[in-house]
Structures are given as structure tokens and as C-alpha cells.
Amino acid sequence: MPLTQDNRDQELLDKLRPSRIVLPILIGLGVVGFMFWRSYRPGDLAPLANAKLHWLLVMLLVLVARDAGYIYRIRHISERVLSWKQSLDVIMIWEFASCVLPSAVGGTAVASFILNKEGISLGKSLAYVMVTALLDNLYYVVTVPLVVVLAGDALYPHEALQGGLISTLRVAFVISYVLVTLYAGLMLYAIFVNPESVKRLLVRLFSLRGLRRWRVSAYQHGNEMVWASAQLRGNGASYWLRAIGSTFFVWTARYLIIGCIIAAFVDVSWNEFMLIFGRNLTYKVILLIAITPGGAGIAEGAFPTFFGKFIGTPTMTNFVVLLYRLVTYYLYLVLGAIFLPRWVARVFSKHADPQAVV
Fold first, then answer.
1. pTM value?
2. Cβ pair 22, 333 in contact under 8 A
3. How confident is the model over 211-231, as pLDDT tens digits?
4. What is the domain count for the chain?
5. Calpha distance 64→328 (Å, rounded)
6. Pseudo-torsion of CA 72, 76, 77, 82, nearest 10°?
């Protein structure tokens, strides 16, 4: 029996149930706790006494600026249909979705649902989500070559991985970059040139043996590109320049946070700070393939491999991991659990019981 709209809504809300924060918190903190237990030595946390508070303040400012940038971007991309309050709700729930769903799925899986419930038509909701995905991918496509040129082979954690593991990471990094570039190019062509041809290409590609199970999804994605093209083609240069600028701002701020935290406890040179920024891009490859909600456990476990050399003792590295995940992950689990019931009560009004998702 086909799902009704109410059933689809409830199915999506079930994926965002606030009680889902328990599992990723247990996984993430469990991994960090084990790492502390295995590595702790008396005196390892001595650098905490000399913490540079101004760097922690910078980290908080960058974090707030990043979220403000996200709020501005979604309001601008949605052509100011959303109020500032609505934009705040959308971003908090979008971040929450990214935290409770596997990293490979991400918050974009439910983003169009969130926008649609804010009163934006389904076609425009899909178009706006595709714009954010396109711009996010383009940031990665443009940034990676710059970082590779500047950092070279230091982009990979040779000090923590040897031989075959480094080769595997390098191959995974190259493959992910090629796939993101191809997908971004396909989206650009579909939105601005010929969406119907891209739709046909996707359907034919996923009609091949071995790919047929995803044919329906490919057809739906093709339709979404057609709708997005129809909604977005009329926007002028100012629209795209602001969207690109805000995307560059939020992702740069996102990648700066780790460097700010490390600099608060360890003396870091400018070159090391920029290398830490660059290693975020290889670290992201691990998170892209994570199967746990928000990469919980995997993000914590992989962190020392990429950033441990800049911090010092394993215990201090584990402390930095914990602080980093507290401000970029666990915080949004808590905020999402607060924002979501209020948002449900507002957008569903009399048509749904807000307690249904608690």
C-alpha cells in the first residue's frame, strides 16, 4: 500500500527522534573513554594549566560565525522566504539530522522535508537543497588542489600510518575527489544547461545490470534536477555570488576550528596551522565512509592519526578530540533535541502531536 503524506512525514520524523542522541553519544564517549584509559600517564594533561584562553575565544567566535553563515546562506538561497527565526530552526535541525544519521547519508536526506514543512513548495525545497549540495561540493573541488599544492605529501599522516595504509588513504582521497568533481560537474550541467539529458543519462546508467536496484532512485534524482533547473535558472549573478561567498565562509570556518583548539594548548606555527587546515580534507574522507550516526566513534578514533603529531602526548590528543567533538557534534545533538519538538509543534500545528517524536 502506498504511503500517505502523513505516513511519510512520520517516517522522516522517526529518523530524527530526539531519543536517537543516546546511541551516538554512547559510542563516541565510549571510544574517547577507552582511548583515555589506554593512554593516560600522570602529568600528560599539564599543558591545560597553560591554555591560551584567547584561542579558545577565537574558536567559539569561529563556531558562532560558522552557524551565522549557515543561517544567512539558507535564508539567501531560499530567496528570503524564510525568516531569521525559521532559518535558525532549519539549520539546527539540519545539523541535528547530520548528527543522528550516518555520515554517508547526512542531513541533506531530510533537508527538503524540513524546508517543505516551512511552507516552501516541494520543487523549490529540492532546488534549494541541491544548491547547497552543489556549492558544498564545489568548495571541496576548488580547495583540494590548492591544499595539495601547498601541503604536498605532508597532507597525509605518514607519522601515524605506514606503507600500504598511506597508499590506501591516498587512493581513497583521489577517488573521493574524482567522484565529487564528476557529481558537481553533472549537477552544474543539469541545472544550467540540459537537465533532461542528465535525467536520461542517469536512467540509462542505472538500467545496467548490477545497478538496476537504484534505477527508481536515479529516476527520482533526475526529476529533482529538472525541477531545480526550472526554479533556479532565473536567478542573477548577485544571488550566486552571495551563495558562493557564504559557502566559502562557512566551510573555511568549519575547517579552522580544529586548528584553533590545538593552538589553545600547543604552540603552533603558521605553516602547521595551515597544514592542520589541509588535513581536514583527508580526515573528511574517513567521515564520508563512516556508517555510524554522525561518524560517532570513527571520527574520535581517527582523529589522533591525522592531528596527533601537532598536539604531543596521546592523552592531550584525546582531550583535544573530546573538546572538538563536544563543540562540533555533541552540542548539536543537544540543541537539536531542544529545537526539534518546538519546530514540530510549530510547523505541524494541529495536524500532528509534537510528543509523537519525543
1. 0.88
2. no
3. 677 777 777 777 777 877 877
4. 1
5. 11
6. 90
